[in-house]
């Protein structure tokens, strides 16, 4: 590996149902395996059996739209609990590693900041935690180094 192979997080894009969210600041999604403990006779250490998984994440946006306030308000006022598709794209041409696309399905937002003010004049941000139920990797980074 050479230093230029590393990938800059700034060279990414995020899409929600095909619409680019250019005001994204930070995005992270994680799959955590759900495990149960399995005591095994004759062993002092506990065994573990994977029995499923859970997808969670957080997106932090610059406050430039009321999109997430509107989504939560619509639900609170009797509308549907909507599900979405996220696609995160890493594309750092200088790395020589190619493009990575991760698609998250059945994304459901957990909460949204409804209002916020800041007397110090900083750019307002909103953090939106979410869950997801499936994922794909339509394009992946190269494994080998040339």
Describe the structure.
With 146 residues, the protein is mainly beta. 7% of the residues lie in helices and 47% in strands. It has one helix at residues 67-76, and strands at residues 12-16, 19-20, 24-38, 47-62, 84-90, 100-109, 125-132, 134-139. Strands 1, 2, 3, 4, 5, 6, 7 and 8 form an eight-stranded antiparallel β-sheet that branches. A hairpin with an 8-residue loop joins strand 3 and strand 4 (47-62). The radius of gyration is 19 Å and the shape is globular. The mean pLDDT is 93.
Topology of this protein?
Blueprint: E1 12-16, E2 19-20, E3 24-38, E4 47-62, H1 67-76, E5 84-90, E6 100-109, E7 125-132, E8 134-139
Antiparallel strand pairs: 1-2, 1-5, 3-4, 4-7, 5-6, 6-7, 6-8
Outline of the structure:
It contains 1 helix and 8 strands, in the order ββββαββββ.
| Biggest pleated sheet | 8 strands, antiparallel
Structure class: mainly beta
Helix content: under 10%
Low-confidence stretches: none
Please give the count of helices. Answer: 1
C-alpha geometry: globular
Number-wise, the strands total: 8
Order of helices and strands: EEEEHEEEE
Rounded to an integer in angstroms, the radius of gyration calculated over CA atoms is 19 Å
How would you state the average pLDDT, rounded? 93
Q: Span between N and C termini? A: 9 Å
State which percent range the strand residues make up: over 45%
